[in-house]
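Appendix B, Record 12. Input sequence as logged:
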Amino acid sequence: MAAVSLVAAAVLSGCNTRQDVGTPTGSIMVPSENALILPPPGGPAVLNVVERRSTNAIEQDIYLYTSAATPGQNLLRAKFFGPMNAKFDQQSRSSYAGVRDNRMMAEARRALPGVSLSLNPYFLQNNYGPFGYAFGRGRANDACIFAWQQIRQQENHRSPLKGYGTIQVRLRYCATGASETELLAPVYGYTITGTFGDPAWNPYGAPPPLEAGLGRTGNPIYRKEEAVTASAPVAVPRRQVQPVARREVSSVPARVEQPVVAPAAVTSIPVPQPDGTVSVPQTDTATKPLPNVIVPAPACMGQQAGGTCP
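Logged structural output:
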């Protein structure tokens, strides 16, 4: 009877036990400000962040704004290998795979199915070291890249007590009407904000030494004008050029009308002659002066009346 009572009590206690609903995959959504890596100022914008934790790494998929016609979602994927909290000891262990071109091209084709990708043959690096990428054309007028980078010290500088840790970064990015240089702007400009609390975790290596003359007397440093180089591309917004109406300029010079000045009238002044006649000079206003015209003097009124002229 006592045994039956114990079984009944156990059944009742099991019915009263409740557990919250959860996702068994270990993936959770975190606020955008908790992203371990951020795109450069000006975009693309961060939409949401999905995080996964294991016994030796933390991984985030940082989904970015997408407006391209090519299927898929733009994202930054960051994976940090380092000392995790003890509560993750019972979870699975994340496997490490080195970054090699053939393996990265396989990932690129899975991230951009149907896009014809070509591997970049040049050596490039950003603030964190060298990186590689593949470029191709997507649907419509889309341009796409898949870039990768591994930040890790050289093996002869790594040890369990100092300088260990690895960061792996992937970028899948498509944009409409963009050039290859514009797509590389997030690769050059992203910022890694995440880190582990262990001071021995350092995948970046020792800081570079200062220049020999820095801070010493007799070594002046002059201001230099900054020049834009092709190694640091900047995202430029694309603007549609508006047509401008052009004014046709005639090559024939304008004629200047000169005012026509009428010749001044010439006043004829009678000139007395020795023989008693009066000559009146006349001038042709159009061409040249005319010869003098002799005008006979009027007859004496006294002669006509039979008298004498004084």
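The CA atoms of residues 44 and 112 lie 18 Å apart.
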